[in-house]
C-alpha cells in the first residue's frame, strides 16, 4: 500500500508552466513540477509517482501538438486533499477528441501514456477545452500523515 504524502499546514500556490511542443522542453518543465511538489511537502514516493504522470502527459501533449511552435500548458493545484494536474495542447481536429478514451485497449496505436498515468492517479479525464485544446486532467487523493 503506498504511503500517503505528508503536507504541512500552509497552503500551496498552484503550479503553472507553458512550454514549446518540443520534446527538449519536457525535462525543464518536469523539474519545475517536481520542485513545486517538494515545496508542497509531498512525500518522495508521491513525488516520484506524479513525476512519471507529468512526464507521460507532457510527452503525449508534445507528440499530439500539430506544430512545434504550439504551446503545451500544464497546471497543478492542491485543493484540500486532492492534487489535480492538467496538461493541454492544441488540436487541429476537435472532432477526433474522444469523450471517453478506451484506456483498456492494449492494442491501440497511441495513448499508452494515459495508461501509465492512470496507474498512479485516481482518475484520468480527457476533454476538449475551448475550441481547439485537448485537456487531460488527472486527480490524485493525498492523505495526511499524523
Notes on the protein architecture:
This protein is of the alpha+beta class. 29% of the residues lie in helices and 27% in strands. A 5-stranded antiparallel beta sheet has the order 1-2-3-5-4, with helices on one face. The longest helix has 21 residues. The two termini are 17 Å apart.
User: What is the total tally of β strands?
Assistant: 5
For the sheet with most strands, the description reads: 5 strands, antiparallel
Assign the structural class, choosing from mainly alpha, mainly beta, alpha/beta, alpha+beta, or little secondary structure. alpha+beta
Q: What order do the helices and strands follow?
A: EHHEEHEE
Q: How are the strands ordered across the major sheet?
A: 1-2-3-5-4
- What does the radius of gyration come to? 15 Å
Averaged pLDDT: 84
Shape by Cα distribution = globular
Low-confidence stretches: 1-10
Q: What proportion strand?
A: 25-35%
- How far apart, in Å, are the first and last alpha carbons? 17 Å
Q: Bin the helical content.
A: 25-40%
Please, how many helices? Answer: 3
Topology of this protein?
Blueprint: E1 15-20, H1 26-39, H2 44-64, E2 71-79, E3 82-90, H3 112-118, E4 123-129, E5 133-141
Antiparallel strand pairs: 1-2, 2-3, 3-5, 4-5
Structure described in brief:
This protein is an alpha+beta fold. Helix content is 29%, strand content 27%. The protein has 3 helices and 5 strands, in the order E-H-H-E-E-H-E-E.
